Amino acid sequence: MRVLLLVFVLLISIAASSQVDDEKLRIGYTAAAPFIVKSGEHVEGLNVWLWKRVASDLNIEYEMIPMEFSPMLDSLRSGGIDLSINPLTITSQRSKEMEFTHSFYASNATIAIAEVSSFDKFKLFVGGFFNFGFLSGLLILLFIIFLFGVLGWLFERKLNPNVFRPGSRGLWDGMWWSAVTLTTVGYGDKAPVTKLGKVTALVLMFGGLLFISGLTASIASSLTVNQLTNNPDGFNEFKDRAVGTIHNSGTEDFLSEHFFKNINTYENVPSGLRDLDHGNIKAFMYDEPILKYAIQRDSTLSELELLPVKFDIQFYAFGLPKTHVELEQRITQRILEIIETEEWDIVLNEYGLAEF
C-alpha cells in the first residue's frame, strides 16, 4: 500500500512539473541590434530589456528560442512560438495573420550604399565628357568653326589680305577668326570688311550663341545624369537597380508595392551589408536604427554610408499568434505603463536610440 502511495505521489509530481514546463512561454527572437544584441549565449538590447521587465512584472515564465527571421514569423503564424520580441513592423498583412502589442518605438527605413572615393568621383566627372552627346556636340562645333572659317577667308582674302592672308596661312586666319567670333571672345585682331564677310560674321555670332548655349546645357545635363546614375541619393533612383533587404520584412513588402524590379532578400542584416560592400548589390534598404548600429559597430563596413533618405514609417511591436488575444492585452497594458516612465527614456539613450 505504501509503495502504491509513493508511486501515486511521484506521478503527480511529474505531471505538475510537466504542467509548469507547458506553461512556459516560447519566446522567439533573432539578432536585430540594437533591439536584440546577441553575443555568444548572452542576449541583450532594448527589446530584451523591455520583455524581461514585462515578464517580471506579470510573473511570466518563458524560454528564449533563437531563430532566423523568416522561420520565426512562420512559427508565429502557426503558433509554434508564443511571442516574438523582435522589433516587428505592424503592417496590414501581418495584422491579418498575427496579433500585435501596442507599438513601443517608431522609426523609418533608409538606404545604405557603398561610399564613392574621391578618385572614383573624379573618374565619373571626367567620364561624363566622353559620352555620345558630348562628343557629337564637340564634332559639330569643330565643323561650324571650320565651315565659317573657310567662308570668311574666301570672302575676305582679296579685299582684306592683311587680315586674311593668302594660302594655308589665310585658312588658319579664318579658323582663328571663326573660333573667336563663335565663342564671343572678340579680340578684335581680325574683322571682316566685305558685305558677305559681315553677313557671315552675323550668322556665326547669332547662330553660334544659340549653339554654344545648347552645348553648355547638354554638357551640364550629361554630367548631372552621369553623377546621379553612379551616385544616387534618392529613393526612386534605385528602382531599376539590384537592391537588398531582409526576407519577409515590411521593407520587402514596401519595395514590391513600389515596383522595385530587382530585390535580393537576406536572412540577416550583416550578410546583406557584406554583399553591398562587395558590390553585389547597389543598395541595402532596411530599418534605419538597425542599419546605423550595424555599420557603426563593424569596422569591415567602414566604406558604407547611409543616405539622408527616410521612407516607410514603421511602428515596432511584439507579435503573438491569433489565439493569444488575452495575453496580448496583458502585455500591451504593461508596455504602455513602462514606456510612459522616465526609465524608458534612459534605456533608449543607453542604446543610442531616440523617439521618432
From TrEMBL:
InterPro entries: K_chnl_dom (IPR013099), Solute-binding_3/MltF_N (IPR001638). Residues 24-354 form the Solute-binding protein family 3/N-terminal domain. Residues 1-18 form the signal peptide. The keyword Transmembrane helix applies. Gene3D superfamilies: 1.10.287.70, Periplasmic binding protein-like II. The chain crosses the membrane at residues 129-155, 199-220. Keywords: Membrane, Signal, Transmembrane, Transmembrane helix. This is Ion channel. It comes from Maribacter spongiicola.
